[in-house]
Task: structure prediction
Amino acid sequence: MNLHLFPIPDYFSRVCLTGIFGCATINITVAELYKREKQAMTQATKTKAPTFTKLVSKEGSTEYPLKAIHICEETFAPLEVAYDYDAIRAQVSRESIQAGPNSIWRYKAFLPVESENPIDVGTGMTPLVKSHRLARRLGLKNLYIKNDAVNMPTLSFKDRVVSVALTRARELGFSTVSCASTGNLANSTAAIAAHAGLDCCVFIPADLEAGKVLGTLIYNPTVMAVKGNYDQVNRLCCEVGNSYGWGFVNINLRPYYSEGSKTLGFEVAEQLGWKLPDRIVAPLASGSLYTKIYKGFQEFIKVGLVEDKQVRFNGAQAEGCSPIVQAFQEGRDFVSPVKPNTIAKSIAIGNPADGIYALDIARKTGGHIESVNDAEIVEGIKLLAETEGIFTETAGGTTIAVLKKQVEAGIIDPEETTVVYITGNGLKTQEAVQGYIGEPLTIEPKLDSFEHALERSRTLERLEWQQTLV
Ligand SMILES: Cc1ncc(COP(=O)(O)O)c(C=O)c1O
Result:
């Protein structure tokens, strides 16, 4: 029975219901019905006690309730979700996870949502590909590629964080969701909000790639293209967030949102046969993804799903926006903001919110953070495509180029099990490679035209080879 319940006097509701059903035996008040319906719903949606308990400051121990807040009032440090790991240990095993959905929600006990019906659009469980040709090209023996270029529904890892954030947004009662985005986040927020029936307004820098803009507009949200860089967009969103009652996935919902990236750690551990790799290489923008892969590994160790092991955390930034690399190289424990200028727009964050925490992880794990220039980023995109058949965007090109640079510098041991994280899809950033790839051979619909073109292309190939040998 689907009843819309209004606060009306008891006697009236008894009369109404008796009237509606035409039967004197229905002698129940609306208040009673409401209570019963609520009890039934609670039983249906919360079969297990939530495992997340509170928000805590990343600096100090101040605790906060599980609301839409993200900054510690005392230290101004970000807030982090805390869990009851004994409860998680009691709820999960390798077998129970494997029996779960083929999506991020198989790790639900580790995620900050209460409902038994989270927003599941098939996000997660993307392939972990054992690399052969790229590995051989780089001289690595155990290289794996975690391919979130094919994550669902919008082809980037952001679908993970948004699935979690919007599920939590719904639980906290938000009807409008929003974000400050470098592109992929806007795609995800708009798509998943459409699926969940939430109103959506996203903010992006006005100079984003066409594929990122179209890939947002298609879901019909309100899109604000701000004349400024991401850091300016973010500042504006903080102001909007203060005056509108919206759920900004990466501002007031950030503690919940960021937890979604842990699933990139969980999946890799599970896909490696419940083992941790020796090293990972991941892109850094705000630094959140990187720090949460680390948290994911630590949590699996804590609850006994994998053996304890030191995983080295390597990170990648574009030279035109590399505030974390600069701090790493200069031995600083603070990050100085920079003004972004790179083709890698998705990771162009000049003032990274989690920069200092990423730095700390790189250092304490014996990892290394490095940057590459735009030309190297394009080469990285092409290298991955040509060797593995994976078309990544500029963030992935940055990561592959940094991997190559670090191998050549002797930082990565060829024997190590290394996982490189590809976090977005190249179809969204086609501008980055235009002019750097071949063109189709246009021919007449005749055999001799085809043969002539084939001969020409083979001659050109030979000439190119000779040039590279010189
Ligand atoms: C494709 C892609 N990879 C990596 C990142 C970096 O994410 P984070 O801000 O969590 O460091 C982003 C950020 O938007 C992105 O779009």
User: Anything to note?
Assistant: The two ends are 80 Å apart (CA to CA). The longest strand covers residues 199-205. The pocket of pyridoxal-5'-phosphate is lined by residues 156, 158, 182, 184-185, 283-290, 346-347, 393, 395, 423-424 (CB under 6 Å). The CA atoms of residues 314 and 368 lie 5 Å apart.
